[in-house]
Design goal:
This protein is an all-beta fold and about 250 residues long. The protein has one domain: Beta-galactosidase, Chain A, domain 5. Helix content is about 0%, strand content about 50%. An eight-stranded antiparallel sheet has the order 10-11-12-13-25-21-20-16, with no helix packed on it. The protein is globular, with a radius of gyration of 17 Å.
Length: about 250
Amino acid sequence: MIELTGPDATARVDLEAGGRLASLVVTGRERLITGGPGAEPMLWGCYPMAPWAGRLREGRLTFEGRTYQLPIDAAPHAIHGTVYRRAWRVDDDGSIVTELGPDWPFPGRARQRFELAPGSLRCTLEIHAEDAPMPATAGFHPWFAGPVELDVRPGRQYRRNGEGIPDGTLIPPDPRPWDDCFVELAADPRLTFEDGLTATVSSDTDHWVIYTPEHAVCIEPQTGPPDGPNLTPHVVEPGKPLSVSMVVSWA
């Protein structure tokens, strides 16, 4: 476990539990859904999604004329990549790193950095290709603990097909509750917690999956929609990593 401490917050990163942000205590209160031994990896903390984010349709990946079958872990789909279930290690430069693993057909690795400052936490995720190009998307999946109010004004959302996968068509936003991918936000999403703390989630990317179950809010910045490596792939070249950052700031 790595612990970062600032004047108004403490963050803990669990290397064994997928390199995730396991805790974010701000002004004395926990702001994330926390987990422990035996907890379902998809349902707590703030974890990295790589080398894809969200669902990969039927676990199939097509790239450069070849189709690859990945393990199904959210039947009938594969979900959230490979690295949030893998152990990470601290590298020489202070970042944390893990390989993409044997379930991914291209050799590569993921790297994260965390910077805690007064009033904010920055998380950065990179996907590196080792010796050949590969398709990828990357993102973060924070579970903010409720009760919490969400202020967000998306411009459009991806239409989902009968399997719950975006088909590439953008439509006006549906009413809440959501488990959808949005673009063209009018402003960064803003959270108001029960004790009055407000937090803003910002990112250098333009896709946001927003999930609003009753007990939490998930605001997930990512470099493309679910099924992104098939629908709108980023091609990662050796020496040219795909990067995404997320900043949580509070007042």
